[in-house]
């Protein structure tokens, strides 16, 4: 059928634009459309069904069943006639009889179609893009039933829905793509500007940064170049990608595409190098040039050169790419201007630059940054000298143009606010301040320069400040220890002073048990968020850390994850928030009896000065603790001795009264002297400050024999040498127990007995256990109220451990006392 007999709507521009907006032509098959034509065949009982879209020069089938080709020319189109009746199904019972179709090549020739029914595809804007049609090779005089026609129209509406959904998804994806592209361009421009800012006065580095950023922003570019104007030529000054081998190439200004861009001062899109009028044909093959975009680099009213991106294939670039290129030519202009200015200033200032670089003090030239309200919110580095880098620990070449908050994250606000005040008032500010993230102290002066610029000259004084802090801490500790009366108060005070002075996260004091088997940690000081570890801990649970403390050496670990003593299993240390630690031993008579503890949750290097400080603290704390313990013991001894002396004198008085009254013979007088001598010897034992080694049972018999006949006592235990302190403590304890037994307990009755038994128990910390058992006397009763001095002495137990278990039973008093065996026995050195 001749094309002029088709409906005029076929060539309607608005309809064709609508069809193009769906971008559907020549796309791959899709299940949604294929299912619709399959269903149309079944509903209408035909062998062929098509989703046909009518363009200006062809009809194309998005989906088809039992039809040989994906489309035909318009001369073979029946669906084009459906455009003319958008509100109803076009039904042609016999295509050979209808004047519109009887000459159609598909009717007169293969595949010899005879029946056609097509429901128009009417879009929401009213345009008809084609039809959903069914075809049969047999004439169907009755056409479609009413139900079949309605079903076909419903399926046509589903085709429209599929097209709308497809376009919506495509629009969404395009929007996302454009958003991603815009992000990529912003990132590329930001990266280029950052590289430009870091180049200083290196012109070639500025140009390279611009070309690299432009290629990053336009991914279709395979090569890039900045061609700088040099007389009547343009020189390839910065090259990347496929143009990298052509550095230094010179092309004529008058007869090249870059020359055309530079002469006109206008950006230029070269779609196809093969036909472009401004391309030098002799360079196309060598440069691999298929298409390109070019933009001038302006400087005032002049042009410095041209930025060009190219690709090997024609049509690689769009107008949008050309707009993007203009962003980078602006960056190139700014970078070149700044670099040139810096180069000029540097050339004029060689002497001062040398002086600046030779300063041993750190020197900063900075410039404040203001927010929209004009308030100083930050400041950026303009210049720093090499000494700045050595004092701060940062490469000075990396900071120019960056802000202080970028270079030193989390820096204290005072470093900004003080500079803001200097710039605002013009007054010089002296400072001694710490940068927390660097852990260093600095002393210096900040002063105003011109405008919003300022200078800072400074030195690091960390060692001096920390030494002063440690010295003051030792003075403070000494003052506090003099005023404190208990061991707990002393250890807590020392822990807090050490923790704050060293910036640690935990500090404390602990008593060693056994042969450095375990430690009982006193209530400790901790930084916020760090838990206490007060209580008992076994050293072996935390690694191979006992040997140093046994020898009396400090245990110093900078990193529990790498130190050979803990690295095999740092988990237990990490579980109590320990990344680094120091255990400073306290020695007594050649053995480690206590440890001062310092922890840091992070790994850190403990300096010799810090370790010396800790040794001083441990020594002072031990002296203070020894003083308190000595005062406690002395108070006990003084009270007891006074009490015993009073009783002894009373006894002496009684003996004198009874023995000497009216007696002239020598025998009663001799008896009196022997009794006084015995009491004197007992008193001498109590008054001694130190004994030589004594056998344990001998001490017991000596003290108990003065109270009652030894046959009233049963001794059961291994004899052993005990220390002077242990002997004194045992004497006082047994004397008081025996005195109470004489007054109130089993020794007050003629048949009463006392069993004294002792034993050693092995374990992590070997101990001595002493049992006192009274039988055959009256029932035991606990003392009323708090009890007298004797009761307090008994509760103190052996060697002041306070581990005394007293049971008052109907059969008599039963008491058990425990003490570390290392505190009882003589230590052999």
Protein described:
The protein is α+β, with helices and mostly antiparallel strands and 829 residues long. It has 5 domains: 3-171, GAF domain (Beta-Lactamase), CATH 3.30.450; 199-348, GAF domain (Beta-Lactamase); 350-460, Beta-Lactamase, CATH 3.30.450; 466-631, Beta-Lactamase (2-Layer Sandwich), CATH 3.30.450; 688-823, Histidine kinase-like ATPase, C-terminal domain (Heat Shock Protein 90, 2-Layer Sandwich), CATH 3.30.565.10. Helix content is 40%, strand content 24%. It has 21 helices and 31 strands. The strands form 6 sheets. Strands 18, 19, 20, 21, 22, 23 and 24 form a 7-stranded antiparallel β-sheet that branches. Strands 3-2-1-6-5-4 form a 6-stranded antiparallel β-sheet. The chain is elongated. Mean pLDDT is 85; it is low at 667-683 and 685-691. Residues 640-719 form the Signal transduction histidine kinase HWE region domain. This is histidine kinase. Residues 28-173, 202-346, 486-635 form the GAF domain.
Summarize this, please?
GO terms for molecular function: ATP binding; protein histidine kinase activity. Residues 640-719 form the Signal transduction histidine kinase HWE region domain. The protein is an alpha+beta fold.
Number of helices: 21
> How many β strands by DSSP?
31
- The amount of beta strand, in percent, is 15-25%
**Structural class, from helix and strand content?**
alpha+beta
List keywords for this structure.
single chain; about 850 residues; alpha+beta; Beta-Lactamase; 5 domains; seven-stranded antiparallel sheet; six-stranded antiparallel sheet; 21 helices; about 25% strand; protein histidine kinase activity; GAF-like_dom_sf; ATP-binding; ATP binding
